[in-house]
Design a protein that fits this description.
The protein is of the alpha+beta class. Helices cover 60% and strands 10% of the residues. The chain is built from eleven helices and four strands. Helix 2 runs antiparallel to helix 6 and helix 10 runs antiparallel to helix 11.
Length: 297
């Protein structure tokens, strides 16, 4: 009786749970991007790298070593190794990134199996090197751009990026070099060196995809004519300028410091302006990977 009375007092309407996941348009775009990236990655590996008897970096590189040594399918070995690394490194990924990564790992293994016979045979090994690096970098770049990883050494690279502030692309390249040393057991030195070229191309393509097509520059200007330069940059370049207070350590002289973010294409114009109004100005140009906010278009 007591149990029945308690059940009657419970307001079940307030305890309803929504089990329907919210799938937005952006989620569908991200899933499509992961699918495309995984497919392009598989094309790069099977159609160019393996077809040219070349290696690869990361888990895929180890899988190719096992293919050459023991004839084990990369689709199987990459799935096993990536599953192990996911189990070890899941705590370093957000839930969103983890879901996308699991999806990407499954798709890459699937596409590696489906495209296993898609090999482009050519007498020009540089074709395999260049296009292999291009497709691999494009595929990984698309996957990482939506917040996922390709597991393997990419997880290690994201950990390095999070805790050591190391560029993801360069971290991936570092771990890939370690795999290259292992590849010497089944590849000639010439094949390994060609693979390194392909990895460098992949890194540059991946960097381009992740950071965007229009890289930004940050300009720091220490000048005796800050007001004039600020007005000229604002009116002729069309960029907002931030003025900060500065003080020389040795001279103890106070100076205004100008700080402005510009498109790379505007760099030459701003250099000409500075040279025109203050030849003795001290100018520092910084690379900017990302600009957020409503004040920059």
């Amino acid at each position: 009786m007591k149990i029945r009375e308690r059940l009657r007092r419970i307001n079940f309407d307030k305890r309803k749970l929504s089990i329907r996941p919210q799938i937005t348009q952006q989620t569908l775009i991200n899933l499509g991007t992961v699918i495309l990236g995984s497919f392009l990655f598989s094309i790069g590996v099977n159609s160019f790298m393996i077809a040219g008897n070349l290696g690869e970096g990361g888990v895929t590189g180890i899988a190719i070593v096992l293919l050459y040594a023991f004839d084990i399918s990369p689709a199987i070995s990459t799935f096993v190794f990536n599953a192990i690394l996911l189990a070890v490194g899941f705590r370093y990924l957000s839930k969103r990134s983890m879901y996308y990564t699991i999806f990407a790992v499954f798709l890459m293994s699937l596409f590696l199996a489906l495209t296993e016979t898609w090999q482009i045979q050519t007498d020009q090994i540089l074709i395999n090197t260049v296009f292999g690096g291009l497709f691999v970098g494009l595929g990984i770049g698309l996957v990482i751009r939506v917040g996922a990883t390709t597991a393997g050494t990419t997880i290690l690279a994201r950990i390095a990026n999070q805790y050591l502030d190391v560029n993801v692309s360069y971290a991936v390249l570092f771990f890939d070099m370690i795999v290259m040393l292992i590849s010497l057991t089944v590849l000639t030195l010439e094949q390994v060196l060609l693979t390194v070229i392909a990895l460098y191309i992949a890194m540059k393509v991946m960097d381009f995809i992740i950071e965007g097509m229009n890289p930004k520059k940050a300009i720091t200007i220490i000048s005796n004519q800050p007001e004039v330069l600020g007005k000229m940059i604002n009116s002729e370049i069309g960029r907002g300028v931030t003025m900060m207070d500065g003080k020389g350590f040795y001279s103890k002289e106070e100076k205004d410091i100008l700080y402005v973010i510009i498109n790379k294409s505007q760099l030459t114009r701003i250099k000409r302006l500075v040279k025109k109004y203050d030849e003795h100005a001290f100018v520092v140009v910084h690379d900017v990977n990302s600009v957020l906010g409503n004040y920059f278009i």
